[in-house]
Amino acid sequence: MVETLKLGLATEVLASFGQALLPVTGSSMFPRMQPGDLLEIRSPSHPIRTGEVVVFLLHARLVVHRVVSRTGDLYITRGDRRRFPDAPVHAAAILGYVTAIERRGRRISPRFTLWRRIVSTVLRHTELGTRVAVYSVRMVRT
Length: 142
What we know:
This protein has 142 residues and is α+β, with helices and mostly antiparallel strands. The chain has a single domain (2-141), classed as Umud Fragment, subunit A (Ribbon), CATH 2.10.109.10. The protein has helices at residues 2-17, 114-124, 127-141, and strands at 19-23, 38-42, 53-58, 61-71, 74-78, 89-90, 94-103, 106-108. Strands 1, 2, 3, 4, 5, 6, 7 and 8 form an eight-stranded antiparallel β-sheet that branches. Strand 7 (94-103) and strand 8 (106-108) form a beta hairpin. The model has no long low-confidence stretch (mean pLDDT 83).
């Protein structure tokens, strides 16, 4: 029930105002996006490009993943830490794209740098490594 309300509110805010701040709760985009970060989301005002991080609905949940390819109106997305891509997402299902990440008062670009790509590739292949990294980040924040 609460998740449905959050989803409806986030969708309504994006549709009405064209932007929203949403908290990160998962680790599929780790290390670029960490639990507790705030994402600045904007409604698409241009065609989404490969490499951009988008927000879309999947099974009544908001998902934030990076676009890895596009074919017509279908986008293939994947979490930076995920091994396999998601099912194709239709352009109409994309609610917005991430313009910035706010972490401890700093604004960070969602751009996928070489260093982040290397770390993500390593974490894709080790669940224990990801758990240790996420735990370490949480310990630093407290």
